[in-house]
Amino acid sequence: MRNSVSSDGFLVRTMRQEEVRVAVDWAEQEGWNPGIHDAEAFYAADPEGFFVAELDGEPIGSVSVVNYDEAFAFAGLYVVMPEYRDRGYGSRLCAAGWSHAGGRNIGADGVVEMQEKYRTRSGFTLAYRSIRFEGTGGGSEPEGTVDLALVPFERLAAYDARHFPAPRPRFLEAWIRQEGSLGRAVLADDGEIAGYGVIRKCRNGYKIGPLFADTPGIAEDIFFALSLQAPGEPVYLDTPEPNAAAVAFARRHGMVPVFETARIYTKAIPDLPLGEIFGVTSFELG
């Protein structure tokens, strides 16, 4: 994007790759608990989709608006340093991100305190709540799951695209191969994917996401196989509230709600199989 400093010393520019790590650090300071290696996978999704706001040359805020295809983008990593809030800088920062998205439908996961602003100022429509559950890793290995590395990537990308508003092969390839992560899948008798999930190390504990599965039973098997990788550690699962089976099995296994967001969109709410979405990939990139 074109960089020009306004008369008050304010500038929004595209981030360099190493600066995305700073934005992820800011997200940690906000209590969002991102993954240790999220920045690398985020950047792979859309290198032009990360923006930093500067005032007199000093960074004061960030936002990402990742374009997945010609119709869909996802916004996240929206942080303005506390001392610069409510001064209009956030709106100017977001405007640059929205410009990058063009006419695409923009999705986001809005934190509770920002949801009304997203609705009134940016025209977002509420789709549903997502609830972050916390539990403790460990358990025993279920039968029937396989290492995700054994699944042909083309099949995995196609299965993932059924559960997300757009194909995202660049992001997915980086996500499943990031350091400190592990993926498991369940295959049907004909070899087709019936579910998959990924667990990754975060600033605190581990997160499971995505967790997509054809049935609740398959989702539980994958969850157990992943949870086993973090014995005694905090494990988090971000569940769409409309998937009652996901919420029920999280509670049944002793997980407790610790955080929530709202999935919001600027245009039509995508028609996704929410009954097969047991864990959101990432509140930052969808």
Report on this structure:
It is a single chain. By secondary structure, this protein is of the alpha+beta class. The protein folds into two domains: 119 residues, Gcn5-related N-acetyltransferase (GNAT) (Aminopeptidase, 3-Layer(aba) Sandwich), CATH 3.40.630; 148 residues, Aminopeptidase (3-Layer(aba) Sandwich), CATH 3.40.630.90. Helix content is 28%, strand content 34%. The protein contains eight helices and 13 strands. Strands 1, 2, 3, 4, 5, 6, 7, 8, 9, 10, 11, 12 and 13 form a 13-stranded mixed β-sheet that branches. A hairpin with a 5-residue loop joins strand 8 and strand 9. Helix 1 packs across helix 2 and helix 2 packs antiparallel against helix 6. The longest helix is centred in the N-terminal third of the chain and has 13 residues. The protein is globular and about 60 Å long. The mean pLDDT is 93.
Quick structural overview:
With 286 residues, the chain is of the alpha+beta class. It has helices spanning 17-29, 38-45, 89-101, 115-122, 153-161, 169-176, 216-227, 244-252; strands spanning 10-14, 50-55, 58-67, 72-80, 105-111, 125-136, 145-147, 181-187, 193-201, 206-213, 234-240, 256-265, 277-279.
CATH topology group of the largest domain:
Aminopeptidase
Largest sheet: 13 strands, mixed
> Low-confidence runs (pLDDT<50, min 5 residues)?
none
What string, H for helix and E for strand, traces the elements in order?
EHHEEEHEHEEHHEEEHEHEE
**Structural class, judged by helices and strands?**
alpha+beta
